[in-house]
Specification:
The complex is a heterodimer of chains A (113) and B (110). Chain A is an all-beta fold. In chain A, strand 9 and strand 10 form a beta hairpin. The radius of gyration of chain A is 14 Å and the shape is globular. Chain A starts with a strand and ends with a strand. Chain B has 110 residues and is mostly beta strands. Chain B is 0% helix and 60% strand. Chain B contains no helices and eleven strands. In chain B, the strands form two sheets. In chain B, strands 2, 4, 5, 6, 9, 10 and 11 form a seven-stranded mixed sheet that branches. A four-stranded antiparallel sheet of chain B has the order 1-3-8-7, with no helix packed on it. The radius of gyration of chain B is 13 Å and the shape is globular. In chain B, 36% of the residues are buried. The chains are: A mainly beta (113), B mainly beta (110). Chains A and B meet through strand 5, strand 9 and strand 10 of A and strand 5 and strand 10 of B.
């Protein structure tokens, strides 16, 4: 199925470093969602973006809705060991009377203490 | 956290047996979804519901059926489980364009 392009695919960083990842699409979205998934757990919604150009923060996380509506960015500042996990973006499309979601390929984050 | 529970959380079953997974929400959201997640494939939509008794197929619906008799419950049934259905299953809900996931059910078919 259709997927959003997400990069980087994985990254090792030192504790305390800032992290950036992005998600791109060939289609326009009116909403961008960012999730984190820990091993053995369900994805948890981190940030939802509803307006082009919007910049939204949630603690050490900041996400931006690209002005073209075809991309989004997630930044994590001052990373800590518990930031380890898989981060993925998602965009909803309203089709056939319901919302269907396109998911990014994921960024696997590993934090070195 | 969104009020979504899944049961059971873990299940081991044998090939050919029927299996039913339950998703329960306390948010009164209209839309409910079942996904499976496998290494290398990400989240794939099995079935979804847009209201009580209103359901439709997703991209990997073969071998699965669903029912939604109440707003809060969405059941996924494997009529005759196969080893290819070994996976982690996630339920999700949304009211508009923001989706929330349940904790998942890990199903192993031997």
């Amino acid at each position: 199925g259709q997927q959003l392009n997400q990069s980087p695919q994985s990254m090792f960083i030192q504790e305390g470093e800032d992290v950036s990842m992005n998600c791109t699409s060939s289609s326009i979205f009116n909403t961008w969602l960012w999730y984190k998934q820990d091993p053995g757990e369900g994805p948890v919604l981190l940030i939802a973006l509803y307006k082009a150009g919007e910049l939204t923060s949630n603690g050490r996380l900041t996400a931006q809705f690209g002005i073209t509506r075809k991309d989004s960015f997630l930044n994590i500042s001052a990373s800590i060991p518990s930031d380890v996990g898989i981060y993925f973006c998602a965009g909803p499309l309203f089709t056939s009377g319901t919302y269907k979601y396109i998911f990014g390929t994921g960024t696997r984050l590993k934090v070195l203490a | 956290d969104a009020g979504i529970t899944q049961s059971p959380r873990h299940k081991v079953t044998e090939t050919g047996t029927p299996v039913t997974l339950r998703c329960h929400q306390t948010e009164n959201h209209r839309y409910m979804y079942w996904y499976r997640q496998d290494p290398g494939h990400g989240l794939r939509l099995i079935h979804y519901s847009y209201g009580v008794k209103d359901t439709d197929k997703g991209e990997v619906s073969d071998g699965y059926s669903v029912s939604r008799s109440k707003t809060e419950d969405f059941l996924l049934t494997l009529e005759s489980a196969t080893s290819s259905q070994t996976s982690v299953y996630f339920c999700a809900i949304s009211e508009a364009d923001t989706q929330y996931f349940g904790p998942g059910t890990r199903l192993t078919v031997l």
